[in-house]
Design brief:
The structure is a homodimer. The first copy, chain A, is α+β, with helices and mostly antiparallel strands. Chain A has two domains: 12-74, Winged helix-like DNA-binding domain superfamily/Winged helix DNA-binding domain (Arc Repressor Mutant, subunit A), CATH 1.10.10.10; 83-218, Umud Fragment, subunit A, CATH 2.10.109.10. Helix content of chain A is 19%, strand content 30%. Chain A is built from four helices and eleven strands, in the order αααβββαββββββββ. Chain A has helices at residues 12-28, 34-40, 46-58, 103-107; strands spanning 62-64, 72-74, 83-92, 114-118, 132-136, 151-156, 165-170, 175-183, 187-191, 200-203, 209-220. In chain A, strands 4-3-5-6-11-7-8-9-10 form a nine-stranded mixed beta sheet, with no helix packed on it. A two-stranded antiparallel sheet of chain A has the order 1-2. In chain A, a hairpin with an 8-residue loop joins β9 (187-191) and β10 (200-203). In chain A, α2 (34-40) crosses α3 (46-58). The longest helix of chain A has 17 residues, at 12-28. Chain A is elongated and about 80 Å long. Chains A and B meet through β4 and β11 of A and α1, β4 and β11 of B. β11 of chain A pairs antiparallel with β11 (209-220) of chain B. Chain A binds a DNA duplex through residues 1-3, 5, 13, 33-35, 43-48, 50-52, 66-71.
Amino acid sequence: MMMVRKSKGLGERHQKILDFIASYQREHKHPPSIREIGEDCDISSTSVVNYYLDQLEKSGNIERDRKISRGVRLTAPTPMGDMFRIPMVGVIQAGEPIPVPSNADFGSFTPEDSIEVAMSLMPTKEKGKELFALKVQGESMIDAMVNDGDIVILRPTQDARNGDMVAVWLSDRNETTLKFFFKEKDKYRLQPANPTMKPIYIDKSEALEIKGKVVMVIRKVERYN
Amino acid sequence: MMMVRKSKGLGERHQKILDFIASYQREHKHPPSIREIGEDCDISSTSVVNYYLDQLEKSGNIERDRKISRGVRLTAPTPMGDMFRIPMVGVIQAGEPIPVPSNADFGSFTPEDSIEVAMSLMPTKEKGKELFALKVQGESMIDAMVNDGDIVILRPTQDARNGDMVAVWLSDRNETTLKFFFKEKDKYRLQPANPTMKPIYIDKSEALEIKGKVVMVIRKVERYN
DNA sequence: ATAATACTCGAACGCCTGTTCTGTGTCAAG
DNA sequence: CTTGACACAGAACAGGCGTTCGAGTATTAT
């Protein structure tokens, strides 16, 4: 017959250490040292703290940077810092060209004119790319299911694959629009996102400038606050 | 005549240090040491790094925990921890009721079934509230400018003010819908977000269950990645 | 020119911290 | 009883790290 001393994987000691790391991190903005953990959890020896820390690492509750001071960090509750800052470079509306930022602009973003998006929300490996955001002005994009005030996040590009939602400038028509892009035999098909609406066709002779690929749309439904 | 050596507040050296701290933090999950900064920025003396760090602290670009190893952290680009974790409790579609989570559910969110939203994106003081997210299934919400696959974030509530976008369950019609809510003299007007579409009117005798107020809509336009 | 300021270097000091090793007591299995 | 895994203490070691000081050089103002 075999009896376990502590119920299962995590004993009371483990939990207390976990809690302490979390609260310490919140308060000090950086992780505690082994000795600080020991002090709080009434462990007089650093080796014992190390002992538990090893277990917590094996069980996946924490990560450790060995040899490095205060190299403990919680795994689960702290995926933080994983936010993406995207510069808000202007507005997008039917009658105006799309303001695509130059590469130089990406370095000097102004915190006020940018939005933050959690990385976990980002489509796969769109992360790390140069993205920019535009605020939709007017109701000219409703056929793309994008409303006035919405924020569209795009990645600058000149070409698109079939099925991509792109922002295009139709210089012949002097118009900016958001559509799904399909290249067909002798023309381009620009399909509205709203399935009840019909596509428009652009002859390949017509000027069609793809400005970017839409990565995300964010709609804040706040009202007079 | 007065010439400034470096353009304004931040010189090239300052900027490089700032950039390095940011990239190091991303890669190592913890801040660099003074010596590591010096190595990267071609500064041979730790005192010089300290010299610049002091300036960056005074100018408010970084925060320092003196005496503590790797106690540098960016202030501006790292308002981190300011993310909101919202439980994804299910799907919303025309033919199905809305799964509103019980209060107890909010505590035990599963990281996998939740999304993170930067607080700066949140409508004013929606922060700290109990919010939940639903994934839109089907194209039945297109009249609300919400497409298949979109994520709607709502705040549970039973009543709405005029102009709020609400998620309602019309039990008489056995239908879930997202509409702008207006209370009129003898009936409710449910206005589609798409301005080209007509509102529907619900008599006050009909059952109209408001399940929540829409706070945000997020559309990820990723395609087969 | 001269002085003040900004910037840079190198080295040494000393604390902080993670690591490791030895030793003790408990408890259950053989 | 012996064995061994487990939980813990204490001490010592070695390296990492922030701090400080003394000194030198360039740039700018007076």
